[in-house]
Amino acid sequence: MEKKEQTQNSENFYLTQTPVKKLLLKFAIPCVLAMLVSALYNIVDQIFLGNSLAGQDGIMATTIVFPFTVLALALAQIVGDGCAALYSISLGAKDDKTTKKCIGNSLILSLIFGVLLMVIGFAAFNPILTLLGVSGYSETTQVFTQQYMTIILAGVPFYIFASAMASIIRADGSPKYSMLSTMIGAVINLILDPILIFACNMGVQGAAIATIIGQVVSAIVCAVYFRKMKLVKLSKEAFKPDFKTVGKTLRLGISSFITQLAIVIITIVANNVVGIIGGENATDAGAALGIVFKVFAIVMAFALGISAGAQPIIGYNYGAKKFDRVRHAFKLVILCNIVLGLIATLLFEAAPSLIVAIFGQGSEFYKEYAILSFRIYLGGILFCCLQKASCILLQSINKPYKALFLSLMRDVILLVPGVCLLGLLGDLNLMLWAGIIADVGAFIPTIFFVLIEMNKLKKFSREAIVLPQAKQTKPSGNYVITIGREFGSGGKYIGQELAKRLNIKCYDNELISKVAQDFNLDIEFLKSVDEKQKSSYWYGFASNYVFGDGEVLPISPEDSLFLKQCKSIENLYESESCLIIGRCADFILKDRPNVIKIFIFSSDMQFKIDRKVKLENLSEEEVREKINTIDKQRADYYNHFTAASWGDKANYDLCIDTGALVLNSQLSCLKVMLRNILRKMD
After folding, report:
1. How far apart are CA 391 and CA 202, in angstroms?
2. Distance between CA atoms of residues 201 and 146, nearest Å
3. What SS3 class is residue 484?
4. N or C: which end of the chain has fewer CB within 10 A?
5. Which residues make beta-bridge pairs with 656?
6. What is the spatial distance between Cα 407 and Cα 261, in angstroms, rounded to a whole number?
7. Are 169 and 178 in contact (CB under 8 A)?
8. 3-class secondary-structure state, position 537
9. Residues 361, 421: contact at Cβ < 8 Å?
10. What Cα–Cα distance (Å) separates residue 375 from each residue in 39, 263, 436?
11. How far from 95 is each of 88, 90, 233, CA to CA, in Å?
12. 246-267 pLDDT per residue, tens
């Protein structure tokens, strides 16, 4: 059990301390691949069927059934994505009870949804096909649709379970395993499709059988994972029904559900509208739109995959109140989706015929309508990528209702009515403009909501109460000199020599020893993180800074060390006259009386290089690199904890440029100067 807890702590530290870019790569790439593979399930069937004897009728059959499979995915994601968000937030907040219960209840809920949808599908088979719009198409398409739907229904429980669990496994810190579970099923489908469709001459039935075999295998792989999770250990108690936890899970997953449900609705509406107004071109137009919807799903696999991959990172850090890391992850996800959207736009506008050709040959109308659909219907794909990504990001920071509204805005409020009105009142071509209108229209409130939340996060991470006011009493005759310094400028040497001449103690590495002694800490560990900040995110001086709601900010190991150093520095200030080098001492004691703050620098880089070459027996290039590295570490450390700028002359009482001085000859002058200053203080 102790080993399990150590593993959890290590992983949690990893989520809060590893650079966000590195974390995003680790989580997003497997997630994108998993979603991409999931999107390819139905597309693979269409490609093989489009190049088989089934032709456009086979493509149309899978297009008609497609909304039902997306409905299954919607049920999977309301459970999986909702649980993943709650799980990540609870881990960050160290709410062990909720982390376990949300997993156990979600496992059961996904099975219930799967079986329930399968039973409803078989019980209302013909009405469902009618709703999906099958009656508006040829007799051959209707027969193929019935065959495909019958077999697909049998695999629905496995599909929902595997899809839901993939999100949860990813949130547990195993994105590669999540990807593997999905890819195994997809590879099996890819291998079996040509065998069953062509070699066994099973047509659409073969495509459906290949699909559900892959889904069954994926579900088994996912189930195996939950025998030994990475961050929690499930017990029987976790599977006990908890309706409060289920409610939280479903609320957090509602945006993902609406996103997928909207695809269901728009596909059904489009199929029915095309069936009504398409006439003899209905099958070709429907097949063309089917291709567009599937390619759209591929782009969304990238957009949503990047966002879903960031969800554990954002959720955990949000729960742990690492708000600057949340903002940074937000920005990276948005940037990735901008690049994705621009690439997709370029491809759809410049080379749609290449995409259409992949799905086999058809009539001239079919080709022309498919090309037009890509250029018009997906003309606003950039805005759609940003809008969909934003929904998941809002969901990750426990804003389910804002995410829900944005999902409804694009897909239900704008897109569905647009397709109906423009289609039924115009023609097939006019209907396509509903897509770009919905994308642009929904993007406007998305910007508004995201900016509000980003500003809130910025406020949470920056809003602070100033350091406690300095005590008014001070032991007579005691004073503290603090020295900040550039590497190679001679700051340490000046500090040590000045302390000797003033007959006071100099604390440099000695301060680390004092912290280790005061708090019984490992001195080697303290030295390894001394004046280093592993991330560039400012969390504030956590012992004194609180958020507007009065809740104290949780701290990282580096923050904790800094707080201990603060306490030791304050104790030194109260107990003796001394000189302290670095460690933000000037900021910690900035409001205390009898404190002189000095910064040592050199405007002459060559002076620093020559000095360190002589002292450390290194090459000039090695010294130059070392100077740049250490100065950056010191600046990051200082800026991180003080919210001020390292080396800013306004922070100090005295700044000395050693590049223009002879050190030894100036020390006596500096001693006299400080003595005079101290005499005036007294």
Report:
1. 41
2. 17
3. strand
4. N
5. 600
6. 10
7. yes
8. coil
9. no
10. 21, 19, 10
11. 10, 5, 14
12. 998 888 888 778 777 877 787 7
Cα of 676 vs its chain's centroid, Å? 56
- Three-state SS letters, 560-595: HHHHHHHHHHHHHHHHCCEEEECCCHHHHCCCCCCE
Helices vs. strands in the chain: H and E counts, helices first: 27, 5
Interatomic CA distance for residues 341 and 439, integer angstroms: 12
Helix-helix angle 381-396:433-462, to 10 degrees:
40
Q: How far apart are the C-alpha atoms of 337 and 343, rounded to whole Å?
A: 10
Which pTM was predicted?
0.56
Which has the closest alpha carbon to 654: 576, 582, 577, 601? 601
Identify any residues that bridge with 304 across adjacent strands, giving them in sequence order.
none
What is the rounded CA–CA span in Å between residue 210 and residue 191? 8
Provide the pairing of β-strand 505-507 with 578-581: parallel
- Report pLDDT for 429: 84
| pLDDT (average), residues 19-33 | 78
What confidence tens digit (pLDDT) does each residue in 641-650 have? 776 778 888 8
Q: Among 479, 482, 467, 481, which residue's Cα sits nearest to residue 582? A: 482
For residues 32 and 587, what is the distance between their CA atoms, to the nearest angstrom? 45
* Contact (CB, 8 A) for 578 and 504: yes
Burial class (CB in 10 A: 0-12, 13-18, 19+), 239: middle
Q: Which of 480, 677, 487 is nearest to 588 (CA)?
A: 480
User: In this predicted structure, what is the pLDDT of residue 53?
Assistant: 64
- pLDDT(539) > 70: no
Please count the other Cβ atoms lying within 10 Å of the Cβ belonging to residue 417: 13
- Which alpha helices (DSSP H) does 124-174 contain, by range? 125-131, 139-154, 156-171
Q: How far apart, in whole angstroms, are the C-alpha atoms of residue 274 and residue 282? A: 6
Q: Would you state the structure tokens that stand for residue 135, as one six-digit string?
A: 């009656």
Does residue 469 register a pLDDT over 70? no
pLDDT for position 675: 67
**What is the signed CA dihedral for 135, 140, 142, 146, rounded to 10 degrees?**
170
pLDDT class of 295 with cuts at 50, 70, 90: confident
The tens digit of pLDDT for each residue in 80-110 reads 988 988 888 787 667 788 888 999 999 999 9
Helix (H) or strand (E) segment spanning residue 84: helix 55-92
**Gap between the Cα atoms of 89 and 326, Å rounded:** 12
- The answer on pLDDT for 270 being more than 50 is yes
Could you tell me which of 84, 64, 66, 86 has the C-alpha nearest to residue 76?
84
> CA separation (Å) from 468 to 77, 571, 592, 597?
48, 15, 10, 19
Contacts of 585 (CB under 8 A, 6+ apart): 480, 482, 569
> How far is residue 313's CA from residue 310's CA, in Å, rounded to a whole number?
5
Mean pLDDT of 523-549: 49
> Distance (Å, rounded) from C-alpha 375 to C-alpha 446?
23
Cα(396)–Cα(378) distance, integer angstroms: 27
Amino acid making up residue 115? V
Strand order in the sheet with 595-601: 505-507, 578-581, 480-485, 595-601, 654-657
**Half-sphere CA count of 359, side-chain side, radius 13 A:** 34
Task: Give dist(CA 419, CA 270) in Å, integer.
Answer: 7
Between 41 and 212, the higher pLDDT residue: 212
Strand positions, DSSP E, 508-646: 578-581, 595-601
473 near 592, Cβ under 8 Å?
no
Q: What is the mean pLDDT of residues 304-309?
A: 80
CB of 582 within 8 A of CB of 484?
A: yes
Q: How far is CA 569 from CA 39, 479, 497, 545, 578, in A?
A: 58, 12, 20, 18, 10
- pLDDT > 70? residue 677: no
